[in-house]
Design goal:
With 113 residues, this protein is mostly helical. The chain has one domain (3-99). Helices cover 68% and strands 0% of the residues. The protein is elongated. It starts with 8 loop residues before the first helix and ends in a 14-residue tail after the last helix.
């Protein structure tokens, strides 16, 4: 295990990029690419964060697309609001676990982790 495999700075930056993506969508794509690249050369506990971030991006995209498609019937606004809150809570929990140097507790969750 090398020094880069235990560096949490990149993982924290990806969480922040995902949060910023609620305003500037391009940052989420940058974070996704970073997570894919960094996942293979990281400690196992840190790799759980990268997998969690990748899942957060794709699930968030699915929720967002569902919200946009259902805007015409009004429920889309609630789905988009849920997605916004969901992403903030999920990333905040991930950052807290990262700061404690813990793996993601519930990696397969589709909700708040």
């Amino acid at each position: 295990m090398n020094e880069s495999s235990t560096n949490t700075g990149s993982a924290k930056a990806i969480y922040i990029l995902l949060i910023i993506s609620t305003i500037i969508g391009l940052t989420g794509i940058i974070g996704l690419i970073m997570a894919y690249v960094l996942m293979s050369d990281s400690a196992e506990w840190l790799a759980t964060h990268y997998r969690f971030q990748i899942r957060t991006f794709w699930i968030g995209l699915l929720y967002t697309m569902t919200g946009v498609i259902t805007l015409g019937v009004g429920v889309g606004y609630f789905i988009l609001l849920f997605t916004f809150v969901w992403l903030i809570v999920r990333c905040t929990k991930g950052i807290r676990q990262l700061d404690n140097r813990e793996p993601v507790a519930n990696l397969e969750s589709w909700f708040f982790a």
